[in-house]
């Protein structure tokens, strides 16, 4: 399954610490050599300040060897830095935590700063210290601390660039703590900020969007309403363009979200378009399934791909939990298209195609007929499903088209009459005034 | 269009003309020419020291006017002699002879002015050339007649002034001081004189050895040089007369050195003074030069020495672009200078002047550089580059303020020096001349092929310039050089690029690049990150073209779409627009090669349906437009044409477009004919194809297909009836496919596509006749797998193109009968009517909205006029409330015109 594993593509677009769970997951699936993965993990985290954990990894990597001496040095250094930061930011932190301060803070950042400077002798540099400290916390793996600090910073600071960075930090911290509710809000806020900010280089904006698309996968596949969110975001023109230009592999998640989300069937059309657009750049069983079903109408191929999808999804960090859900929904889509095209279906061949046994298949079909209000009947004797074709009669069409015409014209006429009456009144008024 | 060219030409001009200063002085000179002359002559006559009086306006005496007239006549004679315009010569000669006695009288010493005598001698000498009849036969009748008249008259006149002429011939310029003073009066003739003398010198030299020089003599003044061979002794005698006596009077070095120093200081001063002052200074300088020529002929032998080189260069620089300046003489002088230049600095200086002079030698708009001349210049640029490469201390920059000065630099030993000049300017010019010459040559001649062989030389020069500019850290120039390189490479397929690269690498001894795609990518990337948007867009388009040419369609298309180049292409200049169209056409070809016919059609549609494809691609001008253009426009439009080897084959393009249109249009036509849907009033996909097809249909007799179009039409007809094998055969017979790089593969794609479209067409056309069709039967009929047929049918059903359903059990397609008793045609028409009526209702609503929103606000004062129009409108609209089906259409039209009229009224208000 290495072929369809996206981890190598995802990692460059994620924060080091966000990448870690991905590696852990991949390790649990045993797709790659364990040793390699451990090394990857070690390298991934080597520039962070999670010294203790790194030491452990090192030992594991080198078969029980003690970590070299500079580890303890580093550890000491980190501890010292921590103390320094504590001292440096003590004043401003205490100020911020005062309830009266919190209540008197307003929307206007500049005014806030002035207020703090006047009443509590806070300098702008101290706010910057908050940011640095937050970053430090994050680097140490203390996400709660970093989240708080970065929040305060983003409220107080006036530096748009740093605020954006702080927002990224906050999002990452929330995600790593598992606060999906806050993270969801953060992601949406971040999206708005990115869209609003005028970047010096357009490529910068693109890069930010790419990151956001990757990061928000964590949120969307963990938050209850995430499946709506991801679909909405990925289908926004600027983001669907971003996907098609910069990170086509994310189409997998778009497809998955679209299939799983039965309520938003209309978005399927757009998804199909995107899938066929990027067909020359990126392919995996999910996109191929969609392509087979909606572009080629090759049902056999679609079934084969569906089987492969299950495997791929089980090995995907984000979708592992949703693979069953996906297959169920995909079957429904399949049946929908199939029934639209066929008027008589051999039940046994359909169920075998969808990898179900006879009885389950029958139940499933019946349920489908009930749910979809399909005009169909099961002929048990021949084991057929007969679907009555929906005929769009032309007289019916004509009636539908002309139904509202007379009403519309009447409304229009009424409006004209009214206006004319008004005008006449105006002119008579004017005449009397002249006289 | 013209703007681009204007800018271009002025650009190249300013590249070459040294500085605005000299330009200014040029103009000045021409303006004041007449008055200046007289001033000099006046002051000369009065014998006073000039320079102060100079500024004041001088009242001319009759005497002055006469001499002025005579001077101009003599000038004209000189000029027309050279051009063999004997009619003019005759005219001026007559004037001059009339003036002769008067001049003699007016002169203090009762002598003829020197220029007068000289003109006579010149005419006489020139007449010698036409001694035998064959020479004069070449001239046209009028000229020949004048020539004879002149011949007869000159004898008489010469007799009259025998003494003077004789004196002149013995000693061309009298050493008399006063006469010399007088000579100041004829600046211009003297300049010419000087150059003549220098020329004769080179000529005599070239006779012995030099071959490169002799070329110039040949090409430019072929008549003269040939004459020197023809007439032999007589002419030689004339020349030798001028030359011979020099050695006897050996160089008087000391006094001359002094003189030179004097002259140099003068020059310095002159540089500091502005345009006005240059004249008189020049006059003096010429004066000096003249004296040397006249008095001590040996000066000529030393004129081209390393020491005097700078002064000479300055002189040439100042005379450049001037009316009187003779280009060919300047050239030969420069060649002479090049030979004697003592060190690299001097060489560079000479080359920097020589190259633009060479370019200027031919008028830029009308003609083009001959291959020989081009190679000559290319060689010069190469040697310039070699010098510069070997001497990192000498740099050339467009922005350098080090002007040419007359300081002696023959002792140059080293040290940083920056000269004014533009290497990239030379390269640009060289490149353009190459393209121009190719555009003007007939591509089917061996000359064209021969010319094409020079392109490797050009490429080597480009790469050298690029490398050199990179070393110089000249970013702008470097980017432009890269641009030229890209421009050179982009339209060549990978193999050709490789071979050009290889020969370049061999010549220059550098590493060749083995991946043309990467090479082009690197070059373009540099331009993207460093250049102005204009160059960037061009580079982008060229890269797209190259990708498409080498079948990297998706990369090309993505680049095309992501660059948003189509958004503002309309603001670009014409050349860039042509490039844009070419890239688009190439994209169309590339997608066709990949079997993406729909995309191909999309790319080509705009260009091909415009009706002026050739103009759009810069590959020729349409006939009907040709006549409307003025001569100037015609030249301009010809300039935009690309040389033949860059062309995209027009016939292939048309073939690709028509085949792609056929594959889309034929099934579409079939589907609209028999479907009851709203498609029926949809317009044609490809109007061009539809028109052709309809025309073909109307023909009573159709012979077997001959050309590409015929084949496609025949194929389309077969396709329309579902006979895919016939259709394919016709397509396959088209000869132009051989120009398609991977034609076999394309044919495979085409075969499959034709089968599919034939099946679709068949179903669309004949489904009314069937209740159901077996899938297996269809599969065998169209030679497709039943799976493929099934999925095709499924697609048609799913997309609502046909009303049918598949039966899995029986493996058939069942067509749904819609039988309501009425015919299909009636149903179609009814549906159309319903559509029209609803669109009518919509129009009404829109118009009402327009009135409310577009008119004045409700409460405001309204003019009676507007009220009237509203009322009128209301009454007009009333019948529409209950749409009458029969009148639906005309009413609609009526209403629309009404609306338009009303709108106009609003606008008029």
TrEMBL record, chain A:
Pfam families: eIF3_N, EIF3E_C, PCI. Residues 219-392 form the PCI domain. It comes from the Eukaryota. GO terms for cellular component: eukaryotic 43S preinitiation complex; eukaryotic 48S preinitiation complex; eukaryotic translation initiation factor 3 complex, eIF3e. Its main location: cytoplasm. InterPro entries: eIF3e, eIF3e_N, PCI_dom, WH_DNA-bd_sf. Keywords: Cytoplasm, Initiation factor, Protein biosynthesis. It is found in: Cytoplasm. One of its GO terms (biological process) is formation of cytoplasmic translation initiation complex. One of its GO terms (molecular function) is translation initiation factor activity. HAMAP family: eIF3e. Belongs to the eIF-3 subunit E family. PANTHER family: EUKARYOTIC TRANSLATION INITIATION FACTOR 3 SUBUNIT E. Component of the eukaryotic translation initiation factor 3 (eIF-3) complex. Component of the eukaryotic translation initiation factor 3 (eIF-3) complex, which is involved in protein synthesis of a specialized repertoire of mRNAs and, together with other initiation factors, stimulates binding of mRNA and methionyl-tRNAi to the 40S ribosome. The eIF-3 complex specifically targets and initiates translation of a subset of mRNAs involved in cell proliferation. This is Eukaryotic translation initiation factor 3 subunit E. It comes from Smittium mucronatum. The gene is INT6.
TrEMBL record, chain B:
One of its GO terms (molecular function) is translation initiation factor binding. One of its GO terms (cellular component) is eukaryotic 48S preinitiation complex. It holds the Pfam family eIF-3c_N. Keywords: Coiled coil, Cytoplasm, Initiation factor, Protein biosynthesis. Signal peptide: none annotated. InterPro entries: EIF3C, EIF3C_N_dom, EIF3CL_C, PCI_dom, WH_DNA-bd_sf. Residues 33-48, 864-873 have a biased composition (Polar residues). Residues 54-68, 233-280 have a biased composition (Basic and acidic residues). GO terms for biological process: formation of cytoplasmic translation initiation complex. Residues 220-232 have a biased composition (Acidic residues). Residues 1-78, 195-294, 852-909 are annotated as: Disordered. Residues 644-820 form the PCI domain. Residues 144-171 form a coiled coil. Belongs to the eIF-3 subunit C family. Component of the eukaryotic translation initiation factor 3 (eIF-3) complex. PANTHER family: EUKARYOTIC TRANSLATION INITATION FACTOR 3, SUBUNIT 8 EIF3S8 -RELATED, EUKARYOTIC TRANSLATION INITIATION FACTOR 3 SUBUNIT C-RELATED. Component of the eukaryotic translation initiation factor 3 (eIF-3) complex, which is involved in protein synthesis of a specialized repertoire of mRNAs and, together with other initiation factors, stimulates binding of mRNA and methionyl-tRNAi to the 40S ribosome. The eIF-3 complex specifically targets and initiates translation of a subset of mRNAs involved in cell proliferation. This is Eukaryotic translation initiation factor 3 subunit C. It comes from Smittium mucronatum.
